[in-house]
Amino acid sequence: MSAPVVPYSPLRAGLSDGAAVMSRNLLKLKHQPGQIAATFAFPLVSVVLFGYVFGSAIPIPGGGNYREYLMPGLFVMGSVFGIMGSLTVIAKDNGLGVMDRFRSMPMARSAVPFGQTAADLVVAAGSLLVMAACGLLFGWRAHNGVAATLGAFGLLLLLQYAVSWVGVFLGSMVKNEETAARLGPLVMPVTMISNVFVPTAGMPDVLRTIADWNPVSAATVACRQLFGNPGLPTGELAWPLANPVLATVGWSVLLLAIFIPLSVRRFRTAGL
Fold this sequence. Notes:
Blueprint: H1 10-28, H2 33-53, H3 66-80, H4 82-96, H5 98-103, H6 111-137, H7 145-173, H8 177-183, H9 188-192, H10 205-213, H11 215-227, H12 239-242, H13 244-269
Helix pairs in contact: 1-6, 2-3, 2-6, 3-6, 3-7, 3-11, 4-6, 4-7, 4-8, 6-7, 7-11, 7-13, 11-13
């Protein structure tokens, strides 16, 4: 008897092809030890540099240890910088013609962007664990129990997954790795004009408004709240800072709703 014919399912095909692309991207890391070292060195350098250089100079509202104030912001900053991983990999594959070969293969059109963002999420989880270990080594603690701590890390991974899709779309718009690298410095103002390093209360009015509505600020306050770390803002607050968890989820869902269809469409139509 012949084997039963399994009906074609776009969802099943997309998941299967996406898993294959994810495995391919993760296996590539075996041949790029420098990239792995840089990914996991960033947390240690960040904690030492910002925690000890700025730690004695910046007062925390209500008191508290600056490194405990800083760590949630560094977690968020690491998640946002995840955009560069997706952007660089997609741009490099564009330059090498890999994307053209993928488009010529009988595979789901959504497989490449979904596979790339899934691989980025795996790497981000590893980087987050390293950063948390560094934070524990240098005095950071999560005080609100296991559930709240896991909730904070889940929120960070959701944010990272959302910005990975932004990186996939931007990477698909450039033709080589060098151009992608030049876009890297543009991410810095997004993290600097926020409450990652200092409270926004002392900023000029216009800058404070931008910082208060910055998704990075909402995610940072959400993590400080869930971890039980010092420096939570008080008084009359902008809506994202008064509802930081809801705002972070909302920003993440909005980015996914915009950039998933844009990225899939770009992969499908590029070169036509």
